[in-house]
Amino acid sequence: MTLRFVGLRKRFGSLIAIDGVDLVFEPGKITSIIGPNGAGKSTLINMCAGSYKVTSGRILFEDVELQRLKKHQIAGHGVARTYQNIRLFDGMTVQQNLEVCLFSSYLGRTFAEVFVPGVSQRFKNERAALCREALARFGLTRFAETLAADLSYGNQKLLEIARATLLNPKVLMLDEPAAGLNHGETDHLKETLRSLVRPDRVMIIVEHDMSFVMTLSDHIFVLHQGRLLFEGTPAEVQANFAVQEAYLGSPGDVDGIRVAARNRANRVRLRSNANIERRRPAPV
Predict the structure, then answer these.
(1) Alpha carbon 264 to chain centroid, angstroms
(2) Which of 56, 204, 215, 226 is 20 to 30 A off residue 194, Cα-Cα?
(3) Are the C-beta atoms of residues 62 and 77 closer than 8 Å to each other?
(4) How far is 54 from 36, CA to CA, in rounded Å?
(5) pTM of the prediction?
């Protein structure tokens, strides 16, 4: 049940966002994708979920070529995702935000739910039970009747992840789940994500918070300018010089930044002194 990106390429006009990437995601692990801004991290998730069309290459899961399918078909194969920007139904309660995700799984039973006595209530009870389980798993039970818009930012993040896991996905992709969270919320999120690991589930996280990534991930892919720069365990990634250079720049770059900073400070000081000279009152 591995998820594989084979020779994956994405072009936006003249810009090549992803350039011939080969990645393998194993189930039962938390795999993170990191890299500087513009490295192509979110583009990979968007292609896998069907939000972006693949320019060339293949996305293989359970011998199915996902890049050939439409978004709803990809979701039907057990692929779920969250977004960088929270996408909740603000005017609905927390429970309603979960329930709305379940209706696709009940489409084939619509006739029975409408016309067969007793079936409608049974299906409603089933949906309510699934939602209660999800609320309990993410610590949101007490907010069931709260409008999504009234939740704290951290709980909104949890609700979005809860929605993504409601139908027990085989592939779960989270795009910057820790963005905007405080330390307490981040620690709680890490515990929650660890509890979602399954032997038959691929978990992919795109994230900028390096402390979060290094303490949560089993395996890490590092992208740079649309290509795979390095892959390995958190310890191997942290020790790799190419990764350090991509994130922090070469020693020469760092020295150049320091010189520029000193020169800027000197210019500011000279400008400040000049202003003092100009403002000094003329002698009487």
Answers:
(1) 37
(2) 226
(3) yes
(4) 22
(5) 0.81
Report the number of distinct structural domains present in the chain: 3
Q: Are residues 141 and 97 in the same domain?
A: yes
Q: How far apart are CA 139 and CA 184, in angstroms?
A: 14
Q: Give me 123's structure tokens.
A: 């299906």
The token duo for 270 is 């000279």
Distance separating alpha carbons of residues 60 and 67, to the nearest angstrom = 8
User: What is the C-alpha separation between 196 and 164, in angstroms, rounded?
Assistant: 11
**Is residue 68 domain-shared with residue 177, that is, in the same domain?**
yes
Per-residue pLDDT of the chain in tens (284 residues, 90 and over written 9): 899 999 999 999 999 999 999 999 999 999 999 998 889 999 999 999 999 999 999 999 998 999 999 999 999 999 999 988 888 989 999 999 998 888 766 555 655 555 566 666 777 788 888 899 999 989 999 999 999 999 999 999 999 999 999 989 999 999 999 988 889 989 999 999 999 999 999 999 999 899 999 999 999 999 999 999 999 999 999 999 888 887 766 555 545 545 665 666 555 454 555 554 445 555 55
Q: Identify the CATH number of the domain in which residue 63 sits.
A: 3.40.50.300
Give the single-character DSSP code of 187.
H
Two tokens, residue 193: 């994500």
d(CA 279, CA 273): 10
Show the domain range for 113.
Answer: 89-164
Query: What beta strand segments (E) does the chain contain?
Result: 3-12, 15-25, 30-34, 56-61, 64-65, 79-81, 171-175, 202-206, 219-224, 227-232
Distances (CA, A) of 238 to 8, 38, 245, 256: 26, 20, 11, 24
Do residue 174 and residue 72 come from a single domain? yes
